[in-house]
Design brief:
- It is a single chain.
- The strands form two sheets. Strands 1-2-3-7 form a four-stranded antiparallel beta sheet, covered by helices on one side. A three-stranded antiparallel beta sheet has the order 4-5-6.
- It contains seven helices and seven strands, in the order E-E-E-H-H-E-E-E-H-E-H-H-H-H.
- The chain folds into two domains: 80 residues, NE0471 N-terminal domain-like (2-Layer Sandwich), CATH 3.30.2020; 56 residues, 434 Repressor (Amino-terminal Domain) (Orthogonal Bundle), CATH 1.10.260.40.
- It is α+β, with helices and mostly antiparallel strands.
- The radius of gyration is 18 Å and the shape is elongated.
Length: 155
């Protein structure tokens, strides 16, 4: 699973709208958890808890409180695709690098050893928090079999 969540919007009907690094938007219905996990029913009554949900670092899930959270995998797997939006280049890069690394069956540590880029930097790039140089991206792309291109958008 290489999808991370860029941002969330909490809708009134217990739907989380999640925008993923790839630009895919999914709607996740939290009420679908009530039967298996009744503890989530508190979100119906406590609007403050619902409205103040936060993203985990690097978009790995949604946090309500110490007892309630959702993983990015749950939201991706059980959410309904609601469209696609354009995202900032750093998120497109994060998604492309992490997808290619996972497709090759490499860990971040292995990619680090092959590329000479520190594992910490790879983690930050894949988490959308880094501002990598073209040299860094070129080295990663070479190992991953990706092509680094810049193209003109139609406007």
């Amino acid at each position: 699973m290489n999808q991370n969540i860029k941002e969330i919007r909490m809708k009134d009907n217990l739907i989380i709208e999640a925008v993923f690094f790839s630009g895919i938007v999914k709607d996740f219905d939290v009420s679908s958890l009530f039967e298996r996990h009744p503890e989530y029913k508190v979100l119906e009554q406590d609007k403050g808890l619902w409205e103040n949900a936060k993203l985990f670092p690097q978009g790995s899930g949604v946090y309500f409180n110490d007892d309630l959270d959702l993983t990015v995998e749950e939201i991706w797997k059980d959410g309904k695709t609601a469209g696609k939006v354009s995202v900032e280049p750093k998120y497109e890069i994060a998604y492309a690098i992490s997808s290619a690394r996972e497709a090759k069956g490499l860990s971040q540590k292995q990619l680090s050893q092959l590329s000479g880029i520190t594992q910490c930097d790879i983690s930050r790039i894949e988490g959308g928090t880094a501002n990598p140089t073209i040299e860094t991206l070129s080295r990663l792309c070479k190992v991953l079999g990706l092509e680094l291109t810049i193209s003109k958008t139609s406007s």
